[in-house]
């Protein structure tokens, strides 16, 4: 995925992250929103459309974050050059999950 430093994500872009226990698919929507859908594994069928923040770390690396309507907070460091995602999830019920997965565009 080529990244433009002024617009690192553009509406219509879709990618999945394959974690050991589940796979979310992220679709970038217009007006600063994205839709996350769990397409396989734990919580399959979950879907939410939320506002997000994105920060370009360097070429092909960005930090993507959002808070779901159920209260969970998600932070991904996405390295599109190595197709690797490093993720921290703070579920609404408490605690923290740290995950590493493979990005598929």
Summarize the structure.
This protein has 105 residues and is mainly beta.
Number of helices: 0
Please identify the structural class as seen in this structure. mainly beta
Assign an overall shape: globular
Element order, helices and strands? Answer: EEEEEEEE
| Count of beta strands | 8
**Mean pLDDT across every amino acid position:** 93
Give the termini separation. 7 Å
What's the arrangement of strands in the largest beta sheet? 1-2-3-4-5-6-7-8
Spans of at least 5 consecutive residues whose pLDDT stays below 50 are none
Question: What descriptive keywords fit this protein?
Answer:
globular, mainly beta, 105 residues, 8 strands
Walk me through this protein's architecture.
This protein is mainly β and 105 residues long. Helix content is 0%, strand content 60%. It has no helices and eight strands. An eight-stranded antiparallel barrel has the order 1-2-3-4-5-6-7-8. A hairpin with a 5-residue loop joins strand 3 and strand 4. The mean pLDDT is 93.
